[in-house]
Amino acid sequence: MIEIQNLTYTYDDAENEVGKLVLNGVNLTIADGEFVAVLGRNGSGKSTLAKQINAILLPMGGYVYVDGMDTLDENKLWDIRRRAAMVFQNPDNQIVATIVEEDVAFAAENLGVPSAEIRRRVDDALETVGMTKYAKYAPHLLSGGQKQRIAIAGVIAMEPDIIVFDEPTAMLDPIGRREVLRTIRRLNRELGMTIVLITHNMDEAVMADRVVVMDRGRVIVDDKPRTVFSDVERMRELGLDVPQATHLAYLLRKAGMDIRADILDAEECVEELLKQCRL
What we know:
Blueprint: E1 2-10, E2 21-30, E3 35-39, H1 46-53, E4 61-66, E5 69-70, H2 77-83, E6 84-87, H3 100-110, H4 115-128, H5 144-156, E7 162-166, H6 174-189, E8 194-198, H7 202-205, E9 210-215, E10 218-223, H8 225-230, H9 232-237, H10 244-254, H11 266-278
Parallel strand pairs: 3-8, 3-9, 6-7, 7-8
Antiparallel strand pairs: 1-2, 1-4, 4-5, 9-10
């Protein structure tokens, strides 16, 4: 669904070092229906990579293909952006209407979708994100997590094949974060959408099929979450943390306890500790 070949990009402006490659020879393939989390410290290039996928930014070198379409082909930009939608950190930047259902309909209206079809899409999208009862509400009355789910509903109403989430929970409290992550998981598991999640939160990345770690504009690690996070020392070298349960297991192993290194969540950690108690 997404194929990135030797991608390079640089920002030439006053806020960035002129000529510095933000993306430096990135190669990455994401299959249809896959859920990929992209990690990296600040300045690693992960958000720039996200914007390349739906052609907000275009390659300066190399290629990005979305469902076989080259993002450098101006004639394909409209189709690419219909297939690959994006959800940003701040939902207020994506909400444009004063009524929830009107906001969800906005993108579909701009695509020229017939009115009856828009009605169906809006209803389906609100149901998907669990916000049907808020259809007539004013967005400014909603919580951060609810606003983000409305932003996601607006994207769903476009019926894209791919959704790129650029740190969608960064501005949310724990309740809002859980609401949004539950929605993202459902889009992938139940609706089969291809998901690319840019995040700083290691516990969020555990949900993904694959974890891609970027550093200095390059893909450094690309593997399953269990494999990536079990190498705690490597993650530290890259300036990143690991899930809390993984870190606890790491400390217990250093203290001499014979416990699995690839633990990802609290349930697995408890199960391992109970095994130790029985020995």
